[in-house]
Write a structure and sequence with these properties.
There is one protein chain. It contains 5 helices and 4 strands, in the order βααβββααα. It has about 150 residues and is α+β, with helices and mostly antiparallel strands. The protein has one domain: 3-Layer(aba) Sandwich (Glutaredoxin). The radius of gyration is 15 Å and the shape is globular. It starts with 6 loop residues before the first strand and ends with a helix. The relative contact order is 0.19.
């Protein structure tokens, strides 16, 4: 890993995100990352937020992070919910430069695109996305009831 890399950026390349334009989003993030040292772009797998996609995960690198020295693990990225991880949803190619500037330059999330904000704004576009949302919400509720 290059010593100057402080952030990993994963663009979901899962089936639904791809259908919703994640390839264009990935190309825009690639250009933004190249223009702004301090981050590297990795290809991510599905994060289970299909109805909210295209999804992008930005994670500040910390010591002991398994993916830091193993970018090939990108497809196995699991959302950790840790403070150093931000999930962006409904991301458009035109958002890439702003997300990279916020994280890499300003070291702060671009709140308007975060999962916490967007999951209340984005409606599923297809019956499959609606079903996926319902299953994800039920899973999250079950997890909250256990704690």
């Amino acid at each position: 890993m290059a010593d100057d890399v402080r952030f990993d950026v994963w663009v979901c390349r899962g089936r639904v995100c791809s259908a919703n334009g994640s390839e264009r989003v990935a190309h825009a993030f690639e250009a933004a990352v190249v223009a702004t040292p301090g981050a590297r772009l990795l290809s991510g797998g599905c994060y289970g937020l299909c109805e909210l996609g295209p999804n992008v995960v930005v994670r500040r690198l910390v010591d002991g992070d398994a993916e830091v020295d193993n970018p090939m693990a990108a497809d196995r990225l699991s959302l950790s919910g840790a403070d150093n991880e931000v999930v962006y949803c409904g991301v458009a190619a035109s958002d890439a430069a702003a997300v990279i500037a916020a994280h890499v330059i300003e070291d702060t999330p671009l709140v308007r695109l975060t999962r916490a904000v967007r999951q209340g704004e984005i409606e599923p576009r297809t019956p499959i996305e609606r079903r996926m949302r319902d299953l994800r919400v039920a899973r999250e509720r079950r997890g909250q009831n256990r704690g």
